[in-house]
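Hey, quick one: can you model this chain's 3D structure?
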Amino acid sequence: MAIKKTQLYSSLWETANQLRGGMDASSYKDYVLVILFVKYVTDKYKGTKSPLFIIPEGGSFDDMRLAKNKPDIWERINTIIAKLAEANELKGVIDRTDFDDSEKLWGGKEKVEKLSKLIGIFENPYLDFSKNRSEWDDILWDVYEYFMKNFASESGKSKGQFYTPAEVSRIMAKIIWVDKATSADQTAYDPTCGSWSLLLKVASESPVNITLYGQEKDIAVSVLAKMNMILHGKPTAEIVQGNTLSEPKFKDGDRLKTYDYATANPPFSDKAWMTWVNFEHDPFHRFDDGIPPAKNGDYAFLLHLIKSLKQTGKWAIILPHWVLFRGGAEAVIRTNLIKKWYIKGIIWLPANLFYGTGIPACIIMLDKENAVNRKGIFMIDASKWYIKDGNKNRLREQDIHQIVDVFTNQKELPKYSRMVALEEIAQNEYNLNIPRYIDTQEEEDIQDINAHLHGGIPNTDIAKFQWYWDTFPNLQSSIFKSIDATYSSFIIDQDKIQETILHNKAFEWYASKVQVVATAWKEKNLKSMMSIAPDTHAKLFVKDISESLLHDFGPVPLIDGYDMYQHLMNYWDEVMQDDVYMVIENWWKAEAYRIIEKNEKTGKEKDKWWACDLVPKQLVIDNYFATDKQVIEGLETQRDEVTRQIEELEEEHGGEEGILEWEDGKINKAIVAKRIKEIKSDPNFNDELQVLDNYLSLVEQESELNKDIKAKEKVLDDKLLKKYPQLTETEVKDLVINKKRLARAFENITGEQEKVSQTLAQWLKELATRYLHTLPEIEKNVAGYESKVKAHLKEMWFSL
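Sure thing. Here's the predicted structure for all 800 residues.
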């Protein structure tokens, strides 16, 4: 059985989290990640002569296995980690976590049991890091990312600083154009690097192995960053611990070292940033453009980064949104930076994205290259583009892609993005608050008083869906006729609107065009889908086919290509990635496996059923045993009809005074049979006897049909079990790709196409209903109803 990756990550987390007990997640992560680190380096380097890492005698994960269930397990773990740290100059890094800490960990027998289970989590045979390849297709990366996200989510307010959400990191890495890097001599820097999550995304976007530098104030988090670099194949990255503002560690002589790229997610509004900082006589001249307020250090980090960039340097920083519009000292700094043209763009993010705070944030992108030729600042308001994910908000794949595409291409979209000229910013006193420049408010739904009084549909309302009329040129004239220059009227009934749209020639052509685009996308990607093999990079594979889908549907009017892209990415997360990884691991084999259920109390195991994840049973039934399926479905239809008749009898003749007696919430078959025997020879009870006989007959029919269904299901199941080993590679590919994956993709395409007609039809029906009756008609009807009511009251001798 090939385990599903999605199940692997969730089961690992659930097991690890159960062992946490009452320990805070921000502390517990250190224990889990240290063991993960030891497991990784053991798998990767034990038995090799790699100069990158040494696995000493007694300092491996294999030694941790031997320590399980030993009464001194915590001492053994500490010794193993100490040996590994000493052999690799990691003292004070991986050995900072004490597995004999009585304040954090459990005591006595419980400590032995839980530490043993914690080691056992990483003994999972599917956690084989010896085959670790790259970020694109690396099980370690995925497990690590899954754990870090969950630890950050559960660490509580102000303790999630070690992790920047992956979605935000990806945006920042892409918009600084690190994908244009050409040499390993080029550098990337993060002055508040946390656990290194941001710089890892930068490194993954670079086509070359650029040099990485990071500084982190928190000792424990800087330790995490060093482990993280080794875990992700970046052992030469330079990570130092210390306060970047008061004691920057990376220098070229008396100046700050400068870099080609930089990212940062500094602590929001650091209220102690001035501590130990010589801000009035800063030797690095970081505060020449102004000194930030003592209680708000946001601009201090921004100014530090500006001095840390080469003249061609590019960087992105996450800051709370209020840095865009606060006054005082910050307004002075903001004005100076704008006048120097350093700020290339601003992306306003949704609120509640980050762990430990719900404050809305923005990404500010600075680019020194060609700054003097810049025409304005490109702004994006992405604050409304997200989904809820538990108690946080999360950017979807389509949100990330759209932000990056629009920002990279400087594409102006209504209510989303625009290039704002310096002159306009100056007129707003250098306030960069996004709503001043991008109006995202929904248009007010204005009622037409004249139409309510005299009838007709306002042409201004009809024009709101002009893109539909442009796409289907003759559709408007088949629904409306003009009254005058201002108003029109419907020429069809409300219940004919949907039908009129669907049978419109232009819409029929449009629907066929959508199918042509979908079919072309299928044919274009079919070869790569069929060619999945052990050397396939799963994430590169889905990147290629999803980008192709976005590209092909981008020009199709009325269908949002990003929606199509999201459908595919959702399907990838839910099902498709598991299929791809199973093929990578086991080839195109339809391997069935037994489902064994274990009784927790007795320990006995019971064979419950069998299944095949790559090729589900229903696929094989639909394609090879359709006749058997039809027979069973026919029997089920008969059984359901009999069941319905039984329920009708129970409803009609049950209850306290009914013929059918209830016992413990149901009608007892034996009692019914006994009653039949009692009254069988008495003609006075013929009616009752008929009901009872009918009921008993139906119950027996239901029972026989259920037996027949189960018998035929057993026969079909036996046929299936024999069929699976006989499925050829070609048949498996056809089932998985054409019948499973592409069938789902085409469902989504059809759904988007149907949504086009449904959206328009719904809007037109609302419009028709709104102006269906004029105010005089309504008043006339009200007067008529009033007259009738008064007449009824008079008949009942009520005086008004």
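One thing worth noting: Confidence is low (pLDDT under 50) at residues 133-137.
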